[in-house]
Amino acid sequence: MQMLAAASVAGFSLNHAFAADASKEGDKTAVKAPNNPYELPAFGNVSLMHYTDCHAQLLPIYFREPNVNLGIGSMKGAVPHLVGEHFLKKYGIEAGTLDAHAFTYLDYVEAAKKYGKVGGFAHLKTLVDQVRAQRPGSLLLDGGDTWQGSWTSLKTNAQDMVDAQLALGVDVMTAHWEMTFGADRVKEIVEKDFAGKIDFVAQNIFSNDFDERVFEPFVIKEINGIPVGIIGQAFPYTPVANPRHMVADWSFGIRDADMQQAVDDARGKGAKVIIVLSHNGMDVDLKMASKVTGIDAIMGGHTHDGVFQPVVVENAGGKTLVTNAGSNGKFLGVLDLDVKDGKVADFRYKLLPVFSNLLEANKDMQTLIDKIREPYQKELAEELAVCDDVLYRRGNFNGTFDQLICDALMEGLDAPLAFSPGFRWGTSVLPGQPITFEHVADQTAITYGTVTRNEMTGETVKNILEDVADNLFNADPYYQQGGDMVRVGGLKFSFDPTAKMGERVSDMELDGKPLDAKKTYPVAGWASVQEEVPKNKQIWEVVADYLRDKKTIGKIELNTPKLKNVDGNEGLA
User: Fold this and answer.
1) Is 235:148 a contact under the CB 8 Å cutoff?
2) What's the average model confidence in pLDDT over 33-47?
3) What is the CATH number for 537?
4) Are residues 231 and 132 in the same domain?
5) Is 211 in a helix, a strand, or coil?
6) pLDDT for 385-406, tens place per residue?
7) Does 570 reside within a domain?
8) I want to staple 340 with a disulfide (CB 3.0 to 4.6 A). Which of 4, 139, 345, 457 is the partner?
9) Closest by alpha carbon to 143, among 331, 379, 317, 286?
10) Is 41 left (phi over 0), alpha (psi -120 to 50) or beta?
11) Could you say which residues form the signal peptide (predicted)?
């Protein structure tokens, strides 16, 4: 942070708010505290709120944090690659508390029953309004991955989330999964729905023909008389991680030099504070903060990391704060800056968990949500099956819901091997809780969800695994694309995240036999980024049919690789 006089983090514990067990869903009387636990002491003269990666979750949900989030090389043992007890130790959080539940997977099922669901736009709206009342002039920043991730967003072509953003009071946003609705739809929303209401900023999206920026790189907003520049950084690898044909005329990239120019331009136009609203991912943001000067804070997303306190990064021009605000509407970050003599002198930061049992639903927002959901309610509420295990997605190598998807693919497409993308979005389901069609849609609702059955050689299978592994575990963050390792059904293998490209995957076996590099195998999958895909069912149809047939799912046996050279890694439970 430029001329940072003191780096301090002020917070408070929410644990006193739960004086009694809140296991009965919706029983707010059991969890109300005498004082408002969301009453943050005011500080400074510039305040910004930040949420990111909500993935179109309008209602309160369950969401389990990962038990595997490995850091490799310089990131080993560093934020955000800390899980479970390691996370608690880093921040001095007591086990069994609300903070421990909000930020880790520890004792997840029992804690979730006790503390209830998280997020929900009606509850988030209440919190945003409370913070705004405490901090007049504060801005609300949306880090992207807002329009995609639910059945209603898919069916309404993202209009549900656009309307919800406007009702929430978003001031500025950037993007990633928004692009999977296509360039024309993105431009339509920005130019019509958002016009004069929400600033859509992305300094790193350029046209292929004239190499000109497609969107404004930044906006300058005045907060209590202080000009604040907010620069957008969309996900740099959108045309690689998602279908290129959906944004065929645009190029992306990290573009450090362009970012530096945007910072200089914003300051040249009078900005005294520079905030980067980023969808790079935490590791990439940390590296960018070390290279680009003049940024006071990077408020980041993409990797879904709930970062308890900002990381302060030194660079040639001073210091930069780097934060990441989790996912699924589970958190609201509040950054308070004390700006003196045109420079940031001090700050306070708190990442607030959004617990629906502690926050009344805003009536107007709830009415909007009910209206959005009404045409789809019967379909969403269909109960497909029940599972004895907790269903979740997050984790570097697999999750129980991903395993269920792989099992459904292998059975539904009659294939001995399945690939499912390592997406980090998707809600959790508690043991014994009915698995509804909505839960399936939460894991699968994308605009390119067609299932595939391809013939692949053993060599091709290995190359795919190695390629995805390098996207996740490359020692240079600028070559990481975020997300997790592709989920694999049927295939057993060993994995060394510390090895070089092409050498991480070994000991591959299928049905107890070594995978033959020259032999061809049927492989089921979904979410192909190719423009031309053979007509087939959608993934949510395959998974829903599988669950309807099974009706009851027992304990799920995760198919995860045998890990090598990870002893002592604090990103492993």
Assistant:
1) no
2) 79
3) 3.90.780.10
4) yes
5) coil
6) 999 999 999 999 999 999 999 9
7) no
8) 345
9) 331
10) beta
11) 1-19
Tell me the C-alpha distance between 423 and 430, whole Å. Answer: 20
Residue 539 counted as domain residue: yes
258 shares a domain with 140: yes
Tell me phi and psi for residue 385, to 5 degrees: -165, 175
Q: Which residue has the tokens 């490359």?
A: 474
pTM of the model: 0.94
pLDDT at position 270 is 98
State the helix-helix crossing angle for 437-444 and 539-550, rounded to 10 degrees: 140
Does some domain include residue 106? no
Domain boundary among 336, 370, 404: 370
Judge residue 257's burial from the number of C-beta atoms within 10 Å of its C-beta, 0-12 exposed, 13-18 middle, 19 or more buried: exposed
Q: How many domains does the chain have?
A: 2
Give, in degrees to the nearest 5, the angle at Cα 483 between 81 and 416.
Answer: 120
Are 338 and 399 members of one domain?
Answer: no
- 3 state SS of 456: strand
**Cβ-Cβ contacts under 8 Å for 483 (sequence gap 6 or more):** 241, 421, 422, 423, 424, 471, 472
Q: What is the CATH number of the domain that holds 191?
A: 3.60.21.10
Q: Which residue among 370, 400, 418 closes a domain?
A: 370
Percentage above 90 pLDDT, the chain: 92
Helix, strand, or coil (residue 306): strand
Tokens of 77: 């043992």
pLDDT of residue 38: 85
Q: What is the pLDDT of residues 525-566, one digit of tens each?
A: 999 999 999 999 999 999 999 999 999 999 999 999 999 999
From residue 553, give the alpha-carbon distance in Å to each of 101, 379, 384. Answer: 26, 21, 11
| Distance separating alpha carbons of residues 280 and 258, to the nearest angstrom | 15
Classified as helix, coil or strand, 365 is helix
Separation between Cα atoms, residue 383 and residue 78, nearest integer Å:
41
What was the pLDDT predicted at 8? 35
Q: Tokens 């739809």 correspond to what residue?
A: 185
Judge whether residue 508 has pLDDT over 50: yes
* pLDDT 10s digits, 404-447: 999 999 999 999 999 999 999 999 999 999 999 999 999 999 99
CB 202 within 8 A of CB 245: no
Q: Which domain holds residue 520?
A: 381-563
Q: Read off the pLDDT of residues 123-180 as tens digits, 9 standing for 90 and up.
A: 999 999 999 999 999 999 999 999 999 999 999 999 999 999 999 999 999 999 999 9
In this prediction, residue 5 carries a pLDDT of 32
| Secondary-structure breakdown of the chain: helix, strand, coil percentages, each rounded to the nearest 5 | 30, 25, 45
Measured CA to CA, the distance from residue 13 to residue 23 in angstroms comes to 20
One domain, residues 357 and 448: no
The reply to whether 271 and 362 lie within a common domain is yes
**Do 387 and 297 belong together in one domain?**
no
